[in-house]
């Protein structure tokens, strides 16, 4: 291998696996001499890569953590993943993180090849983040999301092109779907595709980790009006709203405007109280009764749960348990 830069990149790629390689192993993998291996290791060290060498009959080389971070060697999927993660972090209003993420993203995009820059841009334009607080409904991560699947869904969403794909429902039964994709929604734990289901003639949100073999139809569809403020609100309503397994009706003893200000996005739907301007109604829900109870209990607003009865009973029992556990009991004297 006579191309020194390409040889150094190949050597770095091998060392980034984390294991230790002997000089002869590296020489064989790179088709070079042991002397060239030693010379290239020295070049990597000059560039700032912390390559450690062990001495002895079975000694070798490995890449260790350094004090400063030299340039990274990323494959296509890794580069896209890092760029998307930085974009999402830059959009969050977290002190010290958003600005740093934006700077890092700008540096990364300068060195991304055009094909990857377009891929990242398409995914970003098609994605709406959903971030809610303790009364919201961000689910825990579940299932792996394929990067190529995300790319296909994002491209179809931005182009307004129909999609067909296999889908595994809640009960695990596979089925086929024909949809008009609208937007992707990322919750930090899961990805959802918001789309108009052609067969069911209604809007749906699909978990991306349950989608398989998405195929663009090649047919463009006219824009439809989403029955929600945006794609994130539509997904939030599906997770914590009236379409959830448990539907909760809660009276909030604050005016509607104050409730709207204090509730996080995706907590549920607010309605005016026809009898009093000093209170309002929250319509929310969830697929798990215990998690729904915890979300409502964490809401720092005076309230009364009106339905369902099983939620009222669960909250009463939870309150009694917490009261008992919160009482201080004297420790027994030491023998």
Automatic annotation (TrEMBL):
Q: From which source organism is this entry? A: Streptomyces coryli
Domain HTH deoR-type, chain residue ranges per copy: 4-59
PROSITE patterns per the record?
A: HTH_DEOR_1, HTH_DEOR_2, WYL
**Pfam families the record matches:** HTH_11, WYL
Keywords on record: DNA-binding, Transcription, Transcription regulation
- Molecular function terms from GO: DNA binding; DNA-binding transcription factor activity
Matches recorded under InterPro entries:
CBASS_pafABC_assoc_protein, DeoR_HTH, HTH_11, Tscrpt_reg_HTH_DeoR_CS, WH-like_DNA-bd_sf, WH_DNA-bd_sf, WYL_dom
Q: What is this protein called?
A: YafY family transcriptional regulator
Spans through the membrane: none
């Amino acid at each position: 291998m006579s191309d020194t830069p390409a040889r150094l990149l190949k050597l770095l790629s091998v060392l980034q696996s984390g294991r230790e390689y002997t000089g002869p192993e590296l020489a064989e993998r790179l088709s070079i001499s042991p002397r060239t291996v030693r010379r290239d290791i020295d070049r990597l060290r000059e560039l700032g890569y912390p390559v450690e060498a062990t001495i002895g009959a079975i000694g070798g080389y490995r890449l260790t953590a350094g004090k400063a971070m030299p340039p990274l060697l990323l494959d296509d999927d890794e580069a896209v993943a890092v760029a998307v993660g930085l974009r999402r972090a830059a959009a969050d209003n977290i002190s010290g993180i958003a600005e740093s993420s934006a700077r890092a993203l700008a540096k990364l995009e300068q060195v991304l090849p055009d094909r990857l820059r377009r891929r990242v841009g398409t995914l970003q334009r098609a994605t709406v983040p959903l971030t809610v607080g303790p009364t919201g409904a961000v689910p825990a991560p579940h299932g792996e999301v394929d990067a190529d699947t995300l790319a296909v869904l994002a491209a179809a969403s931005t182009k307004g092109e129909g999609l067909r794909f296999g889908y595994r429902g809640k009960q695990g039964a596979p089925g086929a779907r024909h949809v008009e994709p609208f937007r992707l929604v990322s919750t930090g734990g899961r990805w959802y595709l918001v789309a108009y289901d052609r067969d069911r003639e209604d809007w749906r949100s699909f978990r991306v980790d349950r989608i398989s073999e998405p195929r663009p139809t090649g047919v463009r569809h006219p824009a439809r009006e989403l029955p929600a403020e945006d794609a994130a609100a539509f997904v939030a309503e599906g997770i914590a709203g009236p379409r959830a397994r448990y539907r909760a009706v809660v009276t909030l003893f604050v005016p509607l405007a104050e409730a709207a200000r204090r509730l996080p996005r995706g907590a549920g739907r607010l309605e005016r109280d026809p009898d009093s301007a000093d209170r309002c109604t929250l319509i929310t829900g969830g697929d798990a009764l215990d998690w729904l109870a915890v979300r409502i209990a964490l809401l720092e607003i005076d309230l009364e749960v009106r339905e369902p009865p099983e939620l009222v009973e669960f909250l009463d029992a939870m309150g009694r348990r917490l009261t008992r556990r919160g009482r201080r009991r004297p420790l027994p004297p030491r023998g």
